[in-house]
């Protein structure tokens, strides 16, 4: 083999290897760019969710607090064990509970809405059983009502503490 042919073959092999290296580097760069884009999209989605939750936290907190407040009024009435106080205040409290439950249903989320419904159902069950019985008294249902209100408060706290980390 003469020197000219060796030089041309060497240059061709070197150029080919350089081209393959460039293609490999380009593919690696493309893969890295796609991964970065995927991570950025995921982070942007998480950030939007976090900001949305932050914006909803104020109205949710207010609706939850108002619901708990009217529920606590009922619990306080039941602790008093005064039939006249209960008879006088039950219907207005029941109306407040329905209004507050509607506000909770609007701001959500479903877990809190369900807990509010369970509380309202416990109150309705108490009323129905007291009205249709000669032995049941409203304060006999105090623990059940308090338990439902506590369950609502726990669900509300969990909803307010959500910072958007879940997908």
In a nutshell, what does this entry contain?
With 167 residues, this protein is mainly α. Helices cover 87% and strands 0% of the residues.
Looking at this protein, list some descriptive labels.
167 residues, mainly alpha, Four Helix Bundle (Hemerythrin (Met), subunit A), 4 helices, 0% strand
Element layout with pairings:
Layout: H1 3-80, H2 83-107, H3 110-131, H4 142-161
Helix pairs in contact: 1-2, 1-4, 2-3, 3-4
Largest sheet: none
What is the CATH architecture annotation? Up-down Bundle
What do we call the CATH topology?
A: Four Helix Bundle (Hemerythrin (Met), subunit A)
How many structurally independent domains?
A: 1
Low-pLDDT stretches are none
Total beta strand runs: 0
Q: What is the helix/strand order?
A: HHHH
Radius of gyration: 33 Å
Percentage of helical residues?
Answer: over 70%
* Count of separate DSSP helical elements: 4
Q: Which CATH C-level class is it?
A: Mainly Alpha
Please tell me what the overall shape is. rod-shaped
Mean pLDDT: 85
**CA(first)-CA(last) distance:** 67 Å
CATH superfamily (homologous) name: Nucleotidyltransferases  domain 2
**Fraction of residues in β-strands:** under 5%
SS content category: mainly alpha
């Amino acid at each position: 083999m003469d020197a000219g042919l060796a030089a041309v073959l060497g240059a061709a092999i070197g150029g080919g290897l350089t081209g393959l290296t460039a293609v490999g580097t380009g593919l690696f760069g493309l893969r890295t760019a796609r991964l970065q884009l995927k991570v950025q999209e995921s982070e942007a989605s998480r950030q939007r969710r976090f900001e949305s939750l932050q914006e909803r936290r104020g109205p949710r907190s207010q609706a939850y607090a108002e619901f708990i407040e009217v529920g606590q009024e009922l619990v306080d009435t039941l602790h008093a064990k005064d039939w006249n106080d209960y008879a006088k205040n039950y219907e207005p409290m029941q109306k407040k509970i329905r209004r507050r439950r509607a506000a909770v249903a609007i701001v959500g989320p479903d877990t809190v809405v369900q807990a509010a419904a369970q509380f309202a159902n416990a109150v309705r069950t108490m009323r129905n059983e007291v009205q249709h019985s000669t032995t049941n008294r409203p304060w006999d249902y105090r623990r059940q009502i308090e338990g439902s209100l506590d369950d609502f408060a726990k669900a509300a706290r969990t909803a307010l503490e959500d910072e958007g980390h879940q997908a």
